[in-house]
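Sample entry was shown:
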Amino acid sequence: MVETTGGLTSQTLALEAQTLTLASLTQAEAIEIGNIAQEFGLARKHPIAVQVRMKEWIIFHASLPGSTPENDWWINRKANVVNRTGRSTLHERVLAEEQGIDWLAANGLEEEQYAIFGGGLALNVVGLGLTGILLVSGLEQVADHMLGVEIITEYLARKGEQQ
């Protein structure tokens, strides 16, 4: 077995994405997800930038204390990965590690435009697939991803869609 980032498997991350599927994603709901992200980040004093997009459209953005303009560069590169693949950035990284490939080279992409580092999570809607993206940047990559999972889980719980 190949040792992967965070000790995760692509199978586990695919199952995780399935459990985080949304019933819908409107502009108001995207803002709600962003507000939860901001609330968690501020409460924990995380030096992060968070963003919620509907495809390319930035619906919510917050640069919390301690974050820098570089976080926005990371966010854009992570968003490009999710828009291209429909999967989380950490899923793509772990999959590449499992396959023993250089993800960028295998896809003919440049590092300046794409980043397979945790923190980019697909917001999939039942019956529609990829509808938006939650992006977190500023923590270690697995922590960025796990915070994103926690944010979506909280959003689903508040909507009564998950326990």
In short: The CA atoms of residues 24 and 128 lie 9 Å apart.
